[in-house]
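Chapter review. Work through the record for Helix-turn-helix domain-containing protein before attempting the end-of-chapter questions.
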Amino acid sequence: MDSLIAAAARALAAGDPLAALKRVALRDDAPALALRGIAMAQLGDFVRAKALLRRAARAFGPKEAVARARCVVAEAEVALASRDLGWAAKTLEGARATLEEHGDRVNAAHARYLEVRRLLLIGRIDEAERMLARLRPASFPPASRTVHELLVAGIALRRLRTKAARAALARAERAALHARNPALTAEVKSAFLVLNTPAARLIAGGEERLLLLEEVEALLASRAFVVDACRLVVHAHGQGVSLAKRPMLFALARALGEAWPGDVARDALIARAFGSKLADESHRARLRVEIGRLRTVLRTLAGVSATKQGFALAPPRGREVVVLAPPVEGEYAAVLAFLTDGESWSSSALALALGASQRTVQRALDSLAAAGKVESFGRGRARRWMTPPLPGFTTTLLLPAPLPID
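Structure tokens for Helix-turn-helix domain-containing protein:
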């Protein structure tokens, strides 16, 4: 490695891509191409970064397997940053195996971290946790330890374990200071914001107030009967019943929860659950059937009693009923939740993360764009969507919300 390449690599490690480019911008040898690609990625030009990294991988000779593997890992990181979640995981796995075989443990671990981050983005939290548990970061450099702790915090946040998340972020902050990398320090500060901004709305007794994630965690651990509109689950005394695949039952449960301790008129329930403004006898018969199903689903948690006007929730004595709602609601709240991370997403990546068809996601994006809530740039497969972060809100609890599937 010549002195210019070494100096450029040090500049990139310190988060100074412009200093790196000053040294290698006019060179086309394989190491320089790789460093230029990383620099362009740090500057946010992901398209150019991918092209340079691919050129670098081709330029390295057959005996430079480690260098080629590092280029593959770097390209995967660029793909992840640009929210291209469809990149070949097997290719990254092959590169990681090559790095481990040649003793490059740090870059092999980085490849593993990229896999974990991808799993987190598409909601496969159990897999991400198992994969992360295989790594032992104590011997890694500070930058790698920072990434590790950020992932630990990310998993804890998704599981609503705020104490564990704070501890992991504190460790990440210390490691980032040791790494002296401004980009990592900024990422840790951004993660702390999730804990310190409102994450949901509490609806009880006809009033609303905002909750932090810690307050949400405490609420779910309390004696309250919680209708959770963030995850489409009903919670009570340590148990939870998911209604994510039964949206009509959840609509009824939420309407009853918002009205408690009062009741909800039959016509109002019909409008809420069936979307019908005019109720006839067939609607009332259907409502009786759905209320019967709701009673069956909630039988271990609470009752549903008939009243003169309609129906009311009947939780065990001494239990309060509350509704936990997302900070932002609407038909396409799940799409907005992903876009408000400040990154640019392709429609295919959003479809993968949401578990919906690309056609459904594209319709949602077109509607949001028409309403001025999102914007796109690029064309064809290079088209990306983004929106500025919602001021004063964290979207952690919005992410699992499902979209209607075609």
